[in-house]
UniProtKB/TrEMBL annotation:
Protein name per its UniProtKB record: FecR family protein
Domain FecR protein span(s) in chain numbering: 163-215
PANTHER family tied to this protein: PERIPLASMIC SIGNAL SENSOR AND SIGMA FACTOR ACTIVATOR FECR-RELATED (PTHR30273), PROTEIN FECR (PTHR30273:SF2)
Lineage top rank: taxon: Bacteria
Organism: Luteolibacter arcticus
Pfam families assigned to the protein according to its UniProt record, in alphabetical order: FecR
């Protein structure tokens, strides 16, 4: 593109010793919302960065370079993250501040993530996520949802695009967000209102379309259309390097998988139940299975839990637990720890033996109807490692048409609000405590009965002994 005089002037001023003031920085940010302006900006930054490297170590170079050291760092970051039309996949840095503010992208899901060395990134400030295993979901302000499967390395370029250096990606692009673009080393994919997938490994890239249409842009060629159920592998230069392949729908994770599995018991007698948890196990970790009753007059007994990989037992917890109404819940959390030497990709299944809890009085009898429905919640992470500080704050959930907020105070008080009204009689004088990652608090008028809560992550609260859905942390505005 031919840059506008205003854009050239602002870039020159940024690289000069004086730098940009607040007004100029804000204006540069507005100009960089245009994709072509952004590309010109990154080209300049790349050239400035390479000039600095070339002059490094030459005597007197610091006197001849016209831009300050802080601009060099900024230039290198911009060069590496945004590239000049494609992505190297080897070097990454932070996008410049003017771009960071306009990214409009949030991490909306994490599962089984093992980060690259250095730990979790400061996203969105870093503009890049690189991880060894697991799933990361990013959501753009436009509604575009990107699901990444590790090992993966993805950078956000701007509010309508990103770059995939390696890994698997599925992008869902809603109406109104057409034009979303993902660059890779040898080209780019431009959406036309679709759900598409990519698998990039070195110089090889696979692109497939679940729904709709995409345009595949290759250097030196006209854009090439891919339609629903079509896929290609790109392993060369231009269209000559394309090979049509069947779309492998089973290869990609299209959405963050749910951790909740429904179970139902309608008859007497023991039975073994099986749950496929393959997409919930991405690394060695301390996993927990929580059996939670939701409705029905019967409680159930759970025992002999086994976690198997391709039919082989990897971890087990053989203790007996009970889940039912609040009075009957006990020991309903099962530990299934996968050690580093036992972890491999495969089909992971959870097996358990369940039976109805013995009845008393008129309800007893093998011929009486049985009714019990609930959830298995398969967790890892904070569910076993949370501290008291992790629970402090307000937690919101809905139940049977009413809105509830529980506030756990630092002094260990608990307050309950129903439809914005404080319920002072709910937990009068009670104090909560945390042991083994589980928050416990007594129930009024029910001796030796406790509510138990765990954290799926820092913003999701699990009711382990109540039949409510999960609660989300209330973020103060």
């Amino acid at each position: 593109m031919t840059p506008s005089p205003e854009l050239r002037k602002l870039i020159d001023q940024m690289l000069a010793d004086g730098g940009l003031g607040k007004v100029e920085t804000s204006r540069l940010e507005e100009l960089l919302k245009d994709r072509e302006a952004l590309r010109y900006y990154t080209e300049v930054m790349a050239q400035e960065s390479m000039m600095a490297e070339a002059l490094e170590g030459i005597e007197g170079a610091e006197k001849t370079v016209r831009f300050p050291v802080r601009a060099l760092a900024l230039a290198a970051a911009a060069c590496v993250v945004f590239g000049v039309g494609f992505f190297s996949g080897r070097e990454h840095g932070e996008p410049p501040p003017a771009v960071v503010k306009s990214l409009g992208v949030q991490v909306t899901g994490l599962m089984g993530v093992e980060w690259e060395e250095g730990g979790a990134p400061d996203f969105p400030a870093a503009g890049r996520v690189a991880f060894r295993s697991g799933l990361v979901e990013l959501t753009y302000a436009s509604g575009v949802r990107v699901t990444l499967e590790g090992p993966a390395d993805f950078s956000v370029i701007n509010p309508a695009s990103g770059s995939l250096a390696n890994g698997k990606l599925v992008a869902y692009v809603p109406p109104g967000a057409e034009g979303f673009t993902v660059d890779y080393a040898q080209g780019k994919v431009v959406d036309l209102g679709t759900e598409f997938a990519m698998d990039v490994a070195g110089a090889r890239a696979e692109v497939g379309v679940f729904d709709g249409e995409v345009k595949l842009h290759l250097p030196g060629d006209e854009p090439w259309s891919l339609f629903q159920d079509q896929a290609v592998v790109h392993h060369g230069v231009g269209k000559m390097g394309l090979t049509a392949v069947p779309l492998d729908r089973e290869k990609f994770v299209r959405r963050m998988p749910a951790r909740d599995f429904r179970w139902e018991v309608t008859s007497h007698g023991s039975r073994e139940v099986e749950f496929d948890v393959t997409h919930l196990i991405w690394k060695p970790s301390d996993y927990r299975a929580i059996f939670k009753w939701m409705e029905g007059r019967d409680a159930i007994v759970v025992r002999n839990l086994e976690l198997r990989r391709d039919g082989k037992v990897v971890a087990s917890d053989l203790h007996e637990g009970v889940t039912g109404n609040l009075r009957l819940v006990r020991d309903n959390v099962f530990s299934l720890d996968v050690k580093p030497g036992d972890f491999k990709r495969g089909r992971w299944t959870l097996h358990a033996t369940i039976d109805t809890y013995p009845r008393e009085g008129a309800l007893a009898g093998e011929n009486s109807p049985v009714a019990s429905v609930g959830l298995l919640q398969f967790e890892e992470g904070l569910v076993s490692k949370a501290t008291a500080e992790d629970f402090i704050g307000k937690w919101s959930y809905h139940h049977l048409g009413s809105h509830y907020v529980r506030e756990f105070h630092a002094d260990r008080r608990l307050e309950l609000f129903v439809n914005d009204k404080l319920q002072p009689e709910a937990f009068p004088g009670f104090r909560w405590e945390v042991e083994g990652g589980v928050l416990k608090i007594g129930v009024p008028k029910m001796a030796n009965v406790y509510e138990r809560h765990a954290l799926r992550d820092r913003d999701t609260l699990i009711f382990m002994s109540n039949h409510y859905g999960t609660a989300t942390r209330v973020t103060e505005k």
